[in-house]
Amino acid sequence: MNKTMAYVIALYIRLSLEDSRVESMSIENQKRALHSFVDQMENVRNVEVLEFIDNGYSGTNFERPAVQKLLGQVQAGEINCIIVKDFTRFGRNAIEVGYFMERVFPLYGIRFISINDNFDSGRLHGDTGGLDVAFKYLVAEFYSRDLSVKSKSAKYVKMKRGEYQSKICPYGYRKGPDGRMEPDEETAPVVRLIFELAKDGHSTTQIAKALLEKGIQTPGEYKAAKGIVKRDVSRCGGIWHTSTLRNILTDERYTGTYIMGKCAVREVGSSLVRKKAESEWFKIPDHHPPIISKELFQQVQESFPHFACAKKQVHRYALRNKVFCGVCSHTMSRTSNKNHAFYCRHSRADESTPCHGLRILEADLEGVVYEIMNKQAQVILSLDNISDAEPMDVHLAQQKDYLKQIEGCQDQKRILYEQMLLREISAEEYKTRKAEVDKELDRLDRIYTALCKQTEQMRMGDESRAARRQLAQEVTGTGGLTAALVDALIERIEVYPGNQVRITWKLKDFCTEE
Q1: If phi over 0 gives left and psi between -120 and 50 gives alpha, with beta otherwise, what is residue 51?
Q2: pTM, whole model, 2 decimals?
Q3: Residue 268 near residue 162, CB atoms below 8 Å
Q4: Residue 52: which pLDDT band, with cuts at 50, 70 and 90?
Q5: pLDDT class for 338, splitting at 50, 70, 90?
Q6: How many whole angstroms separate alpha carbon 502 and alpha carbon 513?
Q7: Is beta strand 323-325 parallel, antiparallel or unpaired with respect to 359-361?
Q8: Tens of pLDDT along 144-177?
Q9: What is d(CA 377, CA 2) in angstroms, rounded to the nearest whole number?
Q10: Pairing mode of beta strands 500-505, 490-496
Q11: Rounded to an integer, what distance in angstroms lies between the CA atom of residue 99 and that of residue 137?
Q12: Are 301 and 195 in contact (CB under 8 A)?
């Protein structure tokens, strides 16, 4: 699995702010428990131990740096085994944790161990632990939901009193000396310009072009210039995204009214939110100095009724959120007409960019992707016709033979000891013959341990091949591209001018063609 023959064990450790109050859950105590468990593991030699630590992160989702790094190495085939103190360290979301344990880890041949839960996937032979494990997931998730409800209740009480204020100011504002929002003299004029252009009848695309011609930095570029770097903005190229402009033009905070509680998280641990009814919002008028007048804001809303952002029906299609422009790396939009196509919306404001007008029909793109998938699936299924049962049988037979020899040596040691007690042999002779048996026993033990390790690696390889074979059968059986197959196999698809396509696969050993 790795380039070296080392058996790589990943120790995952997580400590949330709530857990930090409990001494037994500290980082050091988790480390001590995990390393002690590794030291006592049987039939595992030449071990390389890696630590992945998320300190101060909630387990309700997987947006944690260390767990993302761990999953990246799993995908690269660099991990053999993952060990956690208990299930809640890995995650408190039952659906996401179950997905990794039932689909992802078996696919990559990963052994997963939870010490306190007495769970070891290596002993279950493809099972996932049954009702007992599922119940523990649900208990962990219920605990997180209870904490979330209490936290929300305290926040909403502050909202009603007008005391709660976000730490992040909208574009055009900054925090003043008293901690309250005040207009930013550098960006507030840009907000006024955007509203004036919208009032004069300019579309968001036209506004984006005007800002580009004036050389006005996007909000992300402005923050980066101030040393606030949260994401890579190099690909913006000074082009404002139309969604950013729509958000500004519909934000009532620019009139001096502070609004809170517009959205609610759909479920604990999820990054997805739903927009609440306006009647449920908390509004504080004259909360901070306005950048634009209420009259101008109202004029813009009336001239652009679509800014009300009526709830749209979400269309599910196979390549959703997978298609990117290969030139500027932005997500490509999908047309809503009958002959669907993907196009680069970001470059519409700048005709000089190489990806201006970049477009590819959805049917053509799906055809290319499925053709590659299907070809590789047929290769996998044809290779599986070659039976590899004999090597495993040979290893198991050798393993059994050496175990029998080890038991024979242990019997010899017991007989020698009894002969010495009965004075059939002298103490000196006992020591000499025992040393010879110990030497042979040590040799046999090393060989037996190596065979056990090879057998375990072969078993994990069999599980990984079985999972790939199942995916290959799904590919050939569907006869076309499906969202489930795309989610399982594809990381991203990049489209370049001339309908050139580059595919990044989640499983490098499933599809290597591009």
Answers
A1: beta
A2: 0.46
A3: no
A4: very high
A5: confident
A6: 10
A7: unpaired
A8: 444 444 455 555 555 455 444 566 788 999 888 8
A9: 24
A10: antiparallel
A11: 12
A12: no
Nearest CA to 504 out of 489, 487, 492, 512 is that of 492
Backbone angles phi, psi at 78, to 5 degrees: -105, 0
Distance CA 445, CA 435 (A): 15
Contact between 19 and 91 under an 8 Å Cβ cutoff? The reply is no
SS3 514: coil
- The gap between the terminal CA atoms of the chain, to the nearest Å, is 23
Tokens of 46: 């030449």
Q: Side chain identity at 434, as an amino acid letter?
A: K
Domains of the chain with CATH codes: 7-145 (3.40.50.1390), 165-308 (3.90.1750.20), 315-514 (no CATH)
For 449, how many CA atoms within 13 A lie in the half-sphere containing its CB? 14
What is the residue type of 209?
K
The residues near 47 (Cβ < 8 Å, ≥ 6 apart) are 6, 7, 8, 9, 38, 41
The residues near 417 (Cβ < 8 Å, ≥ 6 apart) are: 430, 434
| DSSP helix, strand, coil percent of the chain (3-state; round to 5) | 50, 15, 35
Query: Can you tell me whether residue 123 is helix, strand or coil?
Result: helix
Whose CA is closest to 5, among 449, 371, 310? 449
Residue type present at position 195: F
Provide the angle, in degrees to the nearest 10, between the axes of the packed helices 427-478 and 389-421. 160
Contact yes or no for 120/113 (Cβ under 8 A): yes
| 193-221 per-position pLDDT tens digit | 999 999 988 888 889 889 988 889 888 88
Which residues 6+ apart lie within 8 Å of 120 measured at CB?
111, 112, 113
Q: Exposure pattern of 51-73 as b/e (b: 16+ CB <10 Å)? A: bbbbeebbbbbbebebbeebbee
Mean pLDDT in the chain? 79
- The amino acid that residue 289 corresponds to is P
- Please give the C-alpha separations between residue 229 and each of 219, 234, 240, 436, in angstroms, as whole numbers: 11, 11, 17, 67
Determine the pLDDT at residue 383: 65
Strand partners, 259: 283
Check if the beta carbon of residue 351 is closer than 8 Å to that of residue 376. no
Q: Extract the tokens encoding 314.
A: 């979400």
Task: Tell me the percentage of the chain whose pLDDT exceeds 90.
Answer: 20
The one-character DSSP state at 385 is T
Out of 73-87, 125-139, 395-409, 422-436, which region has the weakest mean confidence (pLDDT)?
A: 125-139
Residue that is written with structure tokens 């179950």 in the block = 98
